[in-house]
Specification:
Layout lengths: L7 E3 L20 E3 L14 E4 L5 E10 L9 E2 L2 E10 L13 E12 L4 E2 L15 E7 L13 E11 L11 E7 L6 E2 L2 H4 E10 L9 E11 L6 E10 L1 E2 L30 E2 L7 E3 L2 E3 L2 E3 L6 E3 L3 E6 L7 E2 L1 E2 L8 E7 L3 E11 L2 E2 L17 E6 L2
Antiparallel strand pairs: 1-2, 3-4, 4-6, 5-12, 6-9, 7-8, 7-10, 10-11, 13-14, 14-15, 15-25, 16-17, 18-19, 20-21, 22-23, 22-26, 24-25, 26-27, 26-28
Length: about 375
């Protein structure tokens, strides 16, 4: 699939246009791989090779697609991108992590290395394995900033890491499966999109954290618009993804990426070597997962004290706050951080207030909460709903 001396056409998993260029992909319709034999690597150009514990050589390739926007275009801002990662062996066979005896998990981790010297990650999700039988894994990511300004000035470098768990391998500290890591460097571009159409941002003055510059701003909570269904009988299905900002300044900030059995899906993994990086964990209340309680832990404004998320909810209103609909929190590994449900609305321009409450604190535009708050205090998403 991704090897030389093979001829293979990747199926198009998405119909939208390419946003990033991380491999040798020129079209989102299909990618054609032709024979090359003038280099030592068995992988095609820009794909990455790893060798797992059973002796197989695997190639990992990356494509990137801009998600279709269910709203009107507007101001310049980054947004959601879907990466598709392909994994195959030297015989061209797809590697399926859901039933492979050795390669048991695949994950992503983005990291921005700013020219100013600090680093930060991005809100991201775990692998969609619905196309695993073809060796294809889809990853959603919300890049918070572009690699370059509109005038071409560099802001830094995005590293996009793909990690696979080797069930028979041994980690350096003998505590977990071996993680094989490959790195791509996508050029994240800016494109036209209305900020209020894909993200509602709120905060509460009682919730602060220590950022990469050592300052203690109020922590922002972002409700990202994941999908909007068609309007039918006065309602449409809405799905949001809730993330926040965090940074662990402790000397023990580094941990290994998690294997399948320990991977809890909160979107926040510190990767070895990324001490003191700015992260964007997904937010959800404590959940039972495989017999363990999964709890999101943030850090307070001193940068080290841990703060657990005991409760989280998302309510939305499309009638200026007269009526509120509570979205259901995702209850599976893949759905952690998602909030979804049918919301009353009519086709056309929609303003949807998004009230996020975390640990009893309501998130507002200014960070100030008080009795008798009106709709103007609550963050909103603005989009066009269709029938």
């Amino acid at each position: 699939m991704l090897f030389k001396r093979k001829y293979f056409i990747f199926p198009a998993l998405f119909s939208s246009a390419l946003l990033l260029s991380a491999c040798n992909n020129e079209s989102d319709e299909e990618v054609k791989v032709t024979e090359k034999s003038d280099a030592d690597s068995i992988c095609i150009e820009n794909a990455k090779e790893v060798t797992v514990s059973d002796g197989r050589s695997l190639c990992i390739g990356l494509t990137a697609f801009k998600a279709e926007a269910p709203f009107m275009a507007g101001f310049m801002a980054p947004g959601k991108t879907t990466h598709t990662v392909f994994v195959s062996d030297s015989d061209g066979n797809p590697v399926n992590v859901t039933n492979d005896e050795v390669v048991t998990a695949i994950s992503q981790y983005p990291m921005m290395y700013m020219n100013a010297g600090h680093t930060h990650s991005a809100p991201f999700k775990h692998a969609d394995t619905s196309a695993a039988e073809y060796g294809a894994y889809n990853f959603d990511i919300y890049y918070p900033m572009a690699s370059t300004m509109m005038d071409g000035t560099s802001r830094g470098r995005w590293e996009y890491r793909v990690m696979i768990s080797d069930n028979n391998g041994t980690a350096d500290d003998d505590t977990d499966d071996k993680m094989h890591k490959v790195i791509f460097e996508p050029a994240v571009e800016m494109y036209m999109i209305e900020k209020k159409a894909f993200r509602a941002v709120g905060k509460n003055e009682s919730d602060k954290y220590k950022n990469p510059m050592g300052m203690t701003p109020t922590r922002q909570y972002s409700a990202w618009l994941e999908t909007i269904g068609k309007v039918s009988e006065g309602a449409a299905d809405v799905k949001l993804y809730l993330t926040t900002q965090d940074m662990d300044h402790s000397s023990m900030a580094m941990t290994k990426p998690m294997s399948r059995s320990a991977e809890h899906g909160n979107g926040d993994m510190h990767v070895m070597g990324d001490k003191d990086s700015h992260t964007y964990p997904a937010i959800h209340a404590p959940m039972d997962m495989m017999g363990d309680t999964v709890t999101v832990t943030l850090h307070s404004e001193d940068g080290t004290t841990e703060v657990e998320i005991d409760s989280a909810s998302v309510e939305v209103s499309t009638d200026d706050g007269e009526n509120w609909t509570t979205l259901a929190a995702g209850m599976t590994h893949e759905e952690m951080g998602y909030y979804s449900g049918p919301v009353p609305m009519e086709a056309g321009e929609v303003t949807m207030l998004v009230k996020v409450t975390v640990n009893g604190n309501v998130m507002t535009k200014t960070g100030v909460t008080a009795d008798g708050m009106d709709a103007e205090d609550i963050p909103a998403l603005k989009f066009t709903a269709s029938e």
